[in-house]
Amino acid sequence: MTTSTQTAAAIAHQLLFDALVEMRAEGYAQQNKVVFHLADLFHHAALDLKAVTEGELTYDDVLRRLEARAGEIGCERWLESALTRIEGTRGETPAEPGPAAD
After folding, report:
1. Distance from CA of residue 32 to its chain's centroid?
2. How far apart are CA 59 and CA 49, in angstroms?
3. CB of 102 closer than 8 Å to CB of 78
4. Mean pLDDT of 61-85
5. pTM summary value
6. What is the SS3 assignment for 22?
7. Residue 18: phi, psi to the nearest 5?
8. Degrees (nearest 5) of the Cα angle 54, 57, 58?
9. Domain spans, the chain
């Protein structure tokens, strides 16, 4: 794959952001609240992760921003549940996510 002067990481982060924005729009159009809210929660996280690779943010900053955004849009229960599940499986092979709580 030929890329421009951007790094592969920057391109991957932008692709993730673009995909999540598109998913959010589709969730809205289809009145699928789970898809809409999860895409809305995570689309800026893709750009925050890019900022981590550029030294502008830390991963702790990304998690704090996710927690703040989850509170703003009513996804805090989903995020808390997901974090609890992840903490409970540290060191194990990641499991498939369960159904959305919100």
Report:
1. 17
2. 7
3. yes
4. 95
5. 0.72
6. helix
7. -60, -40
8. 110
9. 8-88
Reported as a pLDDT band with limits 50, 70 and 90, residue 96 is low
Separation of alpha carbons 46 and 10, rounded Å: 10
On whether the CB atoms of residues 76 and 69 are closer than 8 A, the answer is no
Q: Give the type of residue at 30.
A: Q
d(CA 30, CA 51): 32
Q: Is residue 57 a contact partner of residue 86, using CB atoms and an 8 Å limit?
A: no
User: What is the rounded distance in angstroms from the CA atom of residue 17 to the CA atom of residue 9?
Assistant: 12
Please give the Cα distance from 101 to 24 (Å, whole number): 18
Residue type, 44: H
Q: Backbone dihedral region of 93: left (phi > 0), alpha (psi from -120 to 50 degrees) or beta?
A: beta
pLDDT value of position 101: 47
User: How many CB atoms lie under 10 A from the CB of residue 80?
Assistant: 13
